[in-house]
């Protein structure tokens, strides 16, 4: 026998040419000219594809792999891995993958995993990785199982990126819009970051004294580097991005000073690269922007209170403007076939607070029903004016373009920028489009397609009285990132299902956690499937706002009706109801 087959099989890839230099006769496999036909076949397959492929063969599970798999070995394992026992090469994760090899060898059954987390040391440091792979048995010429074929793909970047986006969405939901002090602001932020695998430590520093002091934190204690960088930021009032650390001053936009310092520390299990630095910097900027908005909101409310105390006439004038704007959004809902729509707007109890909440409902020329719920950042006359502008943009673009919710929000974002509406045009908005294909009509179903620009999750009261809270990763609010594409989600509605959209005035109560309040609203809606949609609104308000509300509230409720059993016949439109306060 000769090894011409081996020279031919290894001629077309880098690792194959390296394989020619291995002293195979010193391994349990022996020289290539003596390898069985079954092993030769799988070696040819390994070296002929660019996809990552690895195989082990023989009593020591001797390792053979191709160019695609070599990249997975990092910088520390590539030298010496070819022809070595798999247990030696992957010793630090052998407690995980070793039993998988043994299972395939002993049972002959395939073992496969999706996004399996493995902490390995392949480049001189411990690293968190994720792999999707399949282990298949390999048989020798006599039919005995003597090896394992590994077809694998590293999914680390995809898993980590999705995880980071999920944390950002949860943080946006948890960020308080009002607070009494920095500690109360920090608490929900730290609750979210404590669950993130990409934030090893987060800390808020109090800067009211002569030196910064840790006010609240999660994760390990502060190290010397953190202490040094916090002192530097305290002196310079400038952000610092160092190896594994982001230290950001939390600015008080109203007073022109610094309200605190935020520290975010990266996990040692992921490499500190430009993407990681951008991610932590983005998290810090999101927290900083929310604090500035909350301070600005609180200052605006204080200014309105002082103005009200000085001039009853000014109060009356502002209230008159607010009522006019409120009446502008209290339009009649449409009356689409087989759907009932109820809308509700309730202004804040304080006469001097002018809200930016709004709702809308309209039918596009293609017959789809579109629902809109929104909340402009701020509680002043500017917020109310901006509300009117944004409502008009969403309505006009949604009606004229007949495009999906995500595309509508993208076009509104572009219009906000193109029309130079300014930094005040920041709002959370949810656009939902109720669609129905012919096949869905026959089944008595509809699809709700929606896109959320930082808004609260919609809820569906099913026909059996159960409630689905449609929590999905949120996109950024309108006006923050006009060039970023919007994400869309779908859910199917059946006869007598009820869709509920609402603003934060319904669920954001002083001293409460927002997530707990959302869960409380879901409990309030349970069992309302037998009530009218006006009673659904009343049930939500009675449970969540037993007294005067501190913020304005907007609600849109849609209930599906049964489809006609036969061909569509002209029928009287369903009665639409408007509930106002």
UniProtKB/TrEMBL annotation:
Coiled coil, from the record: 294-328
Biased composition (Low complexity): 571-581
Top-rank taxon, per record: Bacteria
Annotated ranges, domain PPM-type phosphatase: 339-560
GO molecular function: phosphatase activity
Keywords annotated in UniProt: Coiled coil, Hydrolase
Gene3D superfamilies registered for this protein in UniProt: PAS domain (3.30.450.20), PPM-type phosphatase domain (3.60.40.10)
Region (Disordered): 562-581
Protein's recorded name: SpoIIE family protein phosphatase
Biological source species: Cellulosimicrobium composti
């Amino acid at each position: 026998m000769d090894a011409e087959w081996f020279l031919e099989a290894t001629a077309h890839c880098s690792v194959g040419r390296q394989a020619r230099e291995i002293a195979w006769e010193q391994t349990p496999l022996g020289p290539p000219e003596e390898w069985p036909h079954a092993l030769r076949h799988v070696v040819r397959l390994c070296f002929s594809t660019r996809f990552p492929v690895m195989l082990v063969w023989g009593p020591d599970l001797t390792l053979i792999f191709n160019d695609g798999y070599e990249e997975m070995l990092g910088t520390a394992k590539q030298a010496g891995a070819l022809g070595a026992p798999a247990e030696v090469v992957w010793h630090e994760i052998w407690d995980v993958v070793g039993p998988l090899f043994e299972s395939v060898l002993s049972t002959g059954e395939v073992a496969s995993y999706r996004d399996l987390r493995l902490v390995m040391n392949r480049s001189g440091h411990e690293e968190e990785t994720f792999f999707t792979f399949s282990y298949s048995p390999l048989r020798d010429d006599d039919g005995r199982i003597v090896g394992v074929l590994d077809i694998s793909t590293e999914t680390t970047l995809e898993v980590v990126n999705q995880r980071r986006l999920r944390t950002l969405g949860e943080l946006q939901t948890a960020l308080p819009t009002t607070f009494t002090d920095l500690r109360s602001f920090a608490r929900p932020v730290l609750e979210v970051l404590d669950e993130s695998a990409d934030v090893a430590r987060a800390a808020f520093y109090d800067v009211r004294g002569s030196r910064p002091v840790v006010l609240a934190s999660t994760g390990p204690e502060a190290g010397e580097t953190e202490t040094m960088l916090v002192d530097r930021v305290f002196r310079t009032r400038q952000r610092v991005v160092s190896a594994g650390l982001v230290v950001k001053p939390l600015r008080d936009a109203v007073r022109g000073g610094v309200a605190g310092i935020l520290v975010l520390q990266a996990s040692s299990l992921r490499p500190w690269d430009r993407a990681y630095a951008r991610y932590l910097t983005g998290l810090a900027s999101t927290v900083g922007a929310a604090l500035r908005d909350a301070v600005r909101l609180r200052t605006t409310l204080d200014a309105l209170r002082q103005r009200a105390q000085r001039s009853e006439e000014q109060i009356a004038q502002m209230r008159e403007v607010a009522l006019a704007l409120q009446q502008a959004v209290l339009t009649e809902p449409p009356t689409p076939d087989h759907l009932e729509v109820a809308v509700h707007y309730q202004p804040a109890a304080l006469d001097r607070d002018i809200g930016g909440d709004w709702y809308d409902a309209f039918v596009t020329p293609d017959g789809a029903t579109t629902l809109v719920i929104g909340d402009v950042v701020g509680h002043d006359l500017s917020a109310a004016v901006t509300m009117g502008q944004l409502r008009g943009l969403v309505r006009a673009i949604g009606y004229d373009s007949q495009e999906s919710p995500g595309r509508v929000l993208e076009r509104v974002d572009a219009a906000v920028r193109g029309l130079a509406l300014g930094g005040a045009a920041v709002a959370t908005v949810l656009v939902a489009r109720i669609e129905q294909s012919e096949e869905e009509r026959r089944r008595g179903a509809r699809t709700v397609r929606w896109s959320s620009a930082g808004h609260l999750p919609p809820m569906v009261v099913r026909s059996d009285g159960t409630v689905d809270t449609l929590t999905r990763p949120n996109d950024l609010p309108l006006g923050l990132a006009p060039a970023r594409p919007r994400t869309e989600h779908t859910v199917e509605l059946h006869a007598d299902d009820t869709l509920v959209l609402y603003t934060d005035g319904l669920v954001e109560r002083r001293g409460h956690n927002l997530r707990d309040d959302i869960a409380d609203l879901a409990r309030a809606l349970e069992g309302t499937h037998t009530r009218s949609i006006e009673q659904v609104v009343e049930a939500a308000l009675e449970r969540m706002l037993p007294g005067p509300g501190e913020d304005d509230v907007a609600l849109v409720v849609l209930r599906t009706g049964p489809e006609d059993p036969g061909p569509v016949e002209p029928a009287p439109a369903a009665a639409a109801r408007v509930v106002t306060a």
